[in-house]
Design brief:
2 domains, 6-stranded mixed β-sheet, globular, alpha/beta, 457 residues, single chain, 41% helix, Spore Coat Polysaccharide Biosynthesis Protein SpsA, Chain A
Length: 457
């Protein structure tokens, strides 16, 4: 409809111009004469000092007609590029108006699914795509790191998460506060997750990522359709959990949880084994006796999760997906050894696919990620190499505490290499590359038609 209106308006303007010319020079019988006159008139007008062309500011003000390149909006100042109205909050009462509402864990929320649904009804711009909306949450301690390099590494780890979220259109929240004074260490995530669910009813999934975890495949996007029947997705191995009863059967440092009533109740039960409860010591003893390999006398979140999978499978376990088909939390020690080889493997694929060498805007990166997935799958059929790990998790490396689970060189060099490996994927769209994964300062312009990993011999 909009396109038709624009065409009619254009035709009307052209006929009006021809009519004016006919008054001056008389009716034009041959069609080509009329066309030539109009063309001459337009040419003279274009060189007139009074003629003006739209600059970048004028173009930004042009309205997009409904049905063409997305819907136009009347209030562009408060609508984000994703079409979400950030300035709309009607006076209709929602759960936020309930004086009994508490963001604190330990204060149960009821009927959360209905409350979310009601809020979305009053905020329709958020409703579109809500089922696939992901909100990333991470955190770090409120005090400075004891190791001098710790805060620098922490900043780079956070930058990596921001880059990943920007590429995929996710929001992110970083907490450096203990939202519950007793829930520290492993348990710090519980209060933050609970508060985030209430603060972001527009998000379907809350994605917790430990501060020491790095996104090392910036193209990878969570396969949410796969988890349509589940509410918690955590990296883990069923055999290790159900047969071996191992506390290492899952990794509770990276997971995503659905923003729903089930999750509200699950978080309360899970947190009920934490240090804020009077039965904390008792839970430590129970978990130690239940796990075959747990020598820690304290109750920790990971052992508690395994315990719930073992003892409450019917209540909670059937809604929990143990993911081991991709690196949702890849163990860093072996991964960092293979990053150079992985880089070379992707470079060889990119060199053989013209579209992958094309320069493009960062905002359309997901299109090229799809092209790469197809190219990688085709090569894998003929013995292709290892994929980029989605997340590389530096478990046991604790620079902020001043202690290292491994040698300082192992941890710091591994972190440097993984961070630069991930950052090369980001820098490509800005026209630069780090040829040496162990040298963050060595950055070169990327020649036209070259992949971000290819080094000219």
């Amino acid at each position: 409809m909009g396109r038709a209106i624009a065409t009619v308006a254009s035709d009307y303007k052209e006929h009006a111009t021809v009519a004016k010319m006919e008054k001056l020079i008389g009716p034009t019988k041959p069609i080509f004469i009329g066309v030539a006159v109009v063309a001459l008139f337009m040419l003279i007008w274009s060189f007139s000092p009074s003629a003006s062309f739209p600059n970048i500011s004028d173009v930004a003000k042009m309205a997009v007609l409904p049905g063409k390149d997305g819907g136009a909006t009347k209030d562009c100042a408060t609508v984000s590029y994703q079409g979400i109205n950030l300035g709309h909050d009607p006076a209709n009462k929602t759960f936020y108006d309930d004086q009994a509402l508490s963001y604190e864990i330990g204060n149960p929320v009821t009927n959360w699914d209905d409350k979310r649904r009601e809020w979305l009804k009053h905020h329709p711009s958020f409703a579109t795509g809500a089922e696939d909306r992901v909100f990333v949450v991470t955190g770090s301690q409120p005090s400075p790191c004891k190791n001098p390099i710790g805060d620098h590494l922490k900043l780079r780890f956070f930058k990596n998460k921001v880059d990943y979220c920007r590429i995929h259109g996710y929001d992110i929240f970083h907490s450096n506060a203990f939202l519950h004074p007793k829930m520290v260490s492993w348990w710090v995530k519980m209060p933050v997750l609970r508060a985030t669910m209430l603060a972001h009813p527009e998000a379907e999934w809350i994605f917790w990522v430990d501060s020491d975890a790095i996104f090392t495949d910036m193209d990878f996007k969570l396969p949410l359709e796969k988890y349509k029947d589940h509410n918690l997705v955590v990296p883990g191995f069923p055999n290790k959990v159900y047969k071996e009863k191992s506390c290492g059967g899952v990794n509770a440092g990276v997971f995503f949880i659905r923003n729903c009533q089930w999750s509200m109740e699950f978080l309360e039960v899970w947190a009920g084994m934490g240090p804020q409860t009077p039965n904390y010591e008792k839970w430590g003893q129970i978990l130690t006796s239940t796990m075959t390999d747990n020598t820690n006398l304290e109750s920790d979140d990971q052992s508690a999760l395994v315990y719930l999978l073992l003892k409450e499978k019917e209540t909670f376990g059937n809604k929990i997906y143990l993911e081991y088909h991709y690196d949702l939390s890849g163990y860093w020690v072996e991964i960092v050894k293979s990053l150079d080889t992985i880089s070379d493997n992707y470079a060889s694929i990119e060199k053989g696919v013209t579209e992958l060498k094309r320069r493009h805007a960062e905002k359309v990166s997901e299109h090229y990620a799809a092209v790469m997935r197809e190219a990688f799958a085709n090569k894998s059929g003929s013995g292709g190499g290892r994929k980029r790990p989605f997340i590389t998790h530096f478990t046991a490396c604790r620079p902020c505490s001043g202690q290292w689970g491994y040698s300082e060189g192992q941890c710091s060099n591994g972190m440097e290499k993984a961070l630069n490996f991930a950052d090369n994927q980001v820098l490509r769209n800005y026209g630069f590359v780090r040829p040496d994964l162990l040298n963050a300062s060595s950055i070169y312009p990327l020649p036209f038609g070259f992949s971000s990993y290819y080094k000219e011999k």
